[in-house]
Design brief:
single chain, about 130 residues, mainly alpha, 2 domains
């Protein structure tokens, strides 16, 4: 992994794409809860919807990767499972050490965001990094 390959254009697009994915997650979640869907079920569905939007935006716009393969989708799922686990663990660790929930949320979000960017750039959509 060569960090010199990271471009400002990709970083800024990743932030916009990520914000869009979070917005989709939020709107789907709130809509499903509004219509009486159980909160846990609504959150699972909204998370998948946001992740799907993030995949499409980051694949075609952020990293400009035209080719679609099952391997990319599998790598994306693996990456997001790992970053969700890391997010949860960092959140718990920071709360345990500091008892500061908002600070823990920020730390956990920062770790998973960095993991997702680097993972997508060098693992999921790596054919464009050569």
């Amino acid at each position: 992994m060569d960090l010199k390959q990271i471009k400002l254009k990709e970083l800024s697009r990743f932030v916009v794409g990520g914000g869009s994915a979070v917005l989709v997650d939020f709107v789907v979640y709130r809509s499903l809860v509004h219509f009486g869907i159980d909160m846990s079920v609504a959150k699972a569905i909204s998370y998948v919807a946001g992740a799907a939007v993030g995949f499409v935006i980051n694949k075609f716009w952020t990293f400009e990767c035209a080719r679609l393969s099952f391997t990319e989708i599998l790598r994306y799922v693996i990456l997001y499972a790992c970053s969700a686990l890391a997010n949860t663990m960092v959140n718990a660790l920071v709360i345990w050490v500091t008892s500061m929930t908002f600070f823990a949320f920020l730390c956990a979000t920062g770790v998973s965001t960095i993991m997702n960017f680097i993972g997508q750039k060098f693992f999921v959509f790596r054919q464009n990094t050569k």
